[in-house]
Amino acid sequence: MNTATIVIVGPTAVGKTKLSIDLAKRLNSEIINGDAFQVYRGMDIGTAKVSKEEAEGVTHHLIDICKPEQPYTAAEYQQDARRIIENIRLKGKPPILVGGTGFYIKAALFDYQFSSTGANPAYRRQLEQIAACEGKGVLFERLKKVDPIAAKRIHPNNLIRVIRALEVYHETGKPFSLHKSDETVRPLYPYLCIGLSMNRQLLYRRINERVDQMIHEGLVDEAHDLYTRGLKDAQAMQAIGYKEFIPYFEGGTSCEASVEQLKKNSRHYAKRQLTWFRRQMSVDWFDMSDALVNFDAKSEEIYRFVLRKLDGHSDS
């Protein structure tokens, strides 16, 4: 079988998990997590982590590999994901990379080099947290102030390069534009990217319903457990689904207000995800709106499309 990597991307709550499991079963393959926060143990509800029952026997990689106290960078994810992609390909299977953290997925697939020049993993993690919480535009504005030449060369949505430029400036005191870049953007593996979208009103309704379900399943207690362990400032606690409850735990707002803020942040994040993938990667898009009525038909359509694409890929 062709072992080109199948990438499934899209906004939160669009149906990536269900589709990826269905494809993995049909292709006898394995799934690699592409979400920045599902790597942390004890963060099951808020990250919508796949359950054992939902997985239906399909192997999932890079889930529950870190304690929430332990920072985990994009560079570390890159190394781990590439190793797993190669191992799955050696088995003669097409790896299935699934998630919504665009710069993690792109770091795994493309020849991005996390050079040691001016490296500061702790500062890099801090920047990644800012991007996850406030959007990458905040970092790009910072870059324009410290290195306007680099800002003209780097696309605002290319978060990996924006972070790298800020990191080099922070550590060396010299603009990134003065350093020779060893980054290329060629893909390391043949890949096929499937993007899932949905009518915005339907998607936002699903997001709101998902948040309500998370609350019912115990999200507030899950977030409170992290908070009481002294992890308020940890990278893991900056995830959407957890940070919103910190004001509530500190007596600054009500639980209901935190829930509404979570819904709002989730909707905004979904919009940013769609924008990123549409601008940053070559994606074949599928509207999942009708999948709410007939998932099997939509899954079959995408499966047939994948087979046709794989047949046309040169496997290298």
TrEMBL record:
One of its GO terms (molecular function) is tRNA dimethylallyltransferase activity. Keywords: ATP-binding, Magnesium, Nucleotide-binding, Transferase, tRNA processing. It comes from the Bacteria. PANTHER family: TRNA DIMETHYLALLYLTRANSFERASE. It comes from Sporolactobacillus terrae. GO terms for biological process: tRNA modification. This is tRNA dimethylallyltransferase. Substrate binds at T12, A13, V14, G15, K16, T17. ATP binds at G10, P11, T12, A13, V14, G15, K16, T17. Its EC number is 2.5.1.75. Belongs to the IPP transferase family. Pfam families: IPPT. It catalyses: adenosine(37) in tRNA + dimethylallyl diphosphate = N(6)-dimethylallyladenosine(37) in tRNA + diphosphate. Catalyzes the transfer of a dimethylallyl group onto the adenine at position 37 in tRNAs that read codons beginning with uridine, leading to the formation of N6-(dimethylallyl)adenosine (i(6)A). Gene3D superfamilies: 1.10.20.140, P-loop containing nucleotide triphosphate hydrolases (3.40.50.300).
